[in-house]
Specification:
Length: 272
């Protein structure tokens, strides 16, 4: 029998996680001090409904990347991840990094709604299409944006034209039986409603599901299942395991101009 608490507890699996997150915050602060970006742009009324937009000097003029941070929908903020904009800037692709409301103050459905509201605001403000990207909880939200019915919101069907989830969770039902659910408050109905694996697969939008090869079997299964399910339904989806990467280090290549994640996002943006 699978120990779901052990499978989904990334902090226990990576004892050095606190040092990694502290390093992220320091690198992100140094990056913000070295570039000109628009910070704290509101897309809603709550103090957490804000984002930072990092422009690039040689803007390629195509889609921009919308990034959603991790933290199990209950912690962290955009200020931990600013430095990840460095890689895309070299390729002329702006990136907007969002914050959203957290559990248990709000429900999972409200967090998904925040992600949708962020993307709508970003498109209306810039007139550009979006490549959604996120890590962990943010990977889940990136998949939600890729699978959303934008036409139902009176927006272009390809408002989100592609997406990339890193270590995302796409079926939230296994979390119901874990200690994490003490914060999330999911029951079966709420978990199903917020699980993009159970939504109609996105048509005409590319999505990639990446995960660290050192992550738990459940995290790897979640990404592999999404890729297989969406591909089987006519929405080709790439699954990739990153050799030598754990749940935290897997996102770090996004901060490098020649990093694997950076180049994947460049390809998604240019192909859209």
């Amino acid at each position: 029998m699978i120990d779901l608490d052990a499978e989904y507890n990334n902090r226990a699996r990576v004892p050095e996680f606190a040092d990694i997150v502290a390093r992220w915050k320091a690198e992100a602060e140094a990056f913000r001090a070295s570039v000109k970006g628009e910070t704290g742009i509101a897309y809603g009324d709550d103090p957490r409904q804000t984002y930072d937009l990092f422009h690039t000097k040689d803007d390629a003029g195509g889609p921009l990347v919308a990034f959603l941070h991790g933290g199990y929908w209950r912690s962290l903020d955009k200020e931990h991840f600013s430095h990840l904009a460095r890689g895309l800037a070299v390729h002329g692709i702006p990136i907007a990094m969002a914050e959203y409301r957290l559990c248990p103050a709000v429900t999972m459905a409200e967090i998904v709604s925040d992600a949708v509201q962020f993307a709508l605001h970003l498109h209306q403000r810039t007139g550009r299409r979006i490549v959604a990207c996120g890590h962990s909880a943010g990977g889940h939200l990136a998949a939600c944006l890729a699978a959303a019915d934008w036409g139902a919101n009176g927006m272009p069907e390809d408002l989100v034209c592609a997406g990339l989830g890193v270590s995302g969770l796409y079926d939230l039902r296994p979390l119901i039986a874990t200690e994490i659910n003490g914060s999330l408050g999911l029951d079966d109905a709420a978990a199903r409603e917020a699980s993009p694996l159970l939504w109609p697969p996105p048509q005409g939008r590319r999505f990639e599901a990446w995960v660290g090869a050192l992550e738990s079997g459940e995290f790897r299964r979640q990404s592999a299942t999404l890729a297989a399910t969406w591909t089987g339904a006519g929405a080709p989806t790439v699954y990739r395991e990153v050799e030598g990467a754990n749940h935290f280090t897997v996102i770090e290549s996004l901060g490098q101009p020649t990093g694997a994640l950076t180049l994947a996002l460049v390809d998604l943006a240019r192909a859209a």
